[in-house]
């Protein structure tokens, strides 16, 4: 793609006076082969924290693009009301599903009552599994409160097996190898 084509694609439907230069298109709904790129525990300026999974697409049109899942284990809303049980349950099941697909056995001890401690335990448990592959399915559902930002839902399945390339070992021929003397060298 030339620069003029790139310019046309980058500015199509984009207003330089109103829109952000960092605007990017989301990965569309669909099923993708991904690698668990990184698991961390960010704490934002607002004080909100979560367990963040970074998934890198490894195959197809969107290869090398990343999708981030931010999963909260908060049991109370920002207004102090109890978080609906289905939200907490869905988030625990999502963490457990990702774990199962990469080979990590999740245990109740990984979910202490303090959510920050849970994030730290889970992050440490997932670190050896970074680089493992799995299949990620993204679906989109309407958001009644903010129709311009639909909900992104995720499900996971087993990924393709990626084999590390192995070097071929060829035996060294000891009898046929030429002998090089210092006088043979040009320097």
Task: Characterise the protein shown here.
It is a single chain. This protein has 187 residues and is of the alpha+beta class. The two termini are 49 Å apart. The model has no long low-confidence stretch (mean pLDDT 88). Strand 2 (51-57) and strand 3 form a beta hairpin. Strands 3-2-1-4-5 form a five-stranded antiparallel β-sheet. It contains three helices and five strands. The longest helix is centred in the middle third of the chain and has 18 residues, at 85-102. It has helices spanning 3-11, 85-102, 115-126; strands at residues 30-40, 51-57, 66-71, 133-141, 151-158.
Shape: extended
In terms of per-residue confidence, which ranges show pLDDT below 50 for 5 or more consecutive residues? none
Largest pleated sheet: 5 strands, antiparallel
Helix content: 10-25%
Overall average residue pLDDT: 88
Cα radius of gyration in angstroms: 24 Å
End-to-end distance:
49 Å
Oligomer: single chain
Element order, helices and strands?
Answer: HEEEHHEE
Strand content: 15-25%
The class by helix and strand makeup works out as alpha+beta
Number of helices: 3
Strand order of the largest sheet: 3-2-1-4-5
Query: What is the total tally of β strands?
Result: 5
């Amino acid at each position: 793609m030339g620069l003029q084509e790139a310019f046309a694609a980058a500015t199509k439907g984009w207003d330089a006076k109103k829109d952000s230069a960092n605007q990017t298109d989301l990965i569309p709904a669909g099923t993708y082969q991904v690698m668990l790129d990184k698991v961390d525990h960010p704490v934002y300026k607002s004080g909100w924290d979560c367990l963040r999974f970074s998934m890198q697409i490894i195959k197809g049109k969107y290869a090398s693009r990343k999708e981030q899942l931010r999963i909260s284990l908060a049991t109370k809303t920002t207004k102090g009301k109890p978080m609906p049980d289905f939200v907490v349950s869905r988030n625990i099941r999502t963490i457990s599903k990702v774990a199962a697909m990469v080979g990590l056995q999740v245990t109740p001890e990984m979910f202490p009552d303090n959510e920050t401690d849970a994030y730290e335990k889970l992050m440490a448990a997932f670190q050896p599994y970074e680089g493992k592959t799995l299949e990620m399915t993204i679906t989109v559902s309407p958001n009644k409160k903010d129709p311009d930002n639909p909900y992104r839902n995720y499900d996971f399945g087993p990924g393709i097996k990626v084999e590390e390339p192995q070097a071929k070992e060829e035996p060294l021929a000891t009898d046929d190898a030429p002998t090089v003397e210092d006088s043979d060298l040009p320097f």
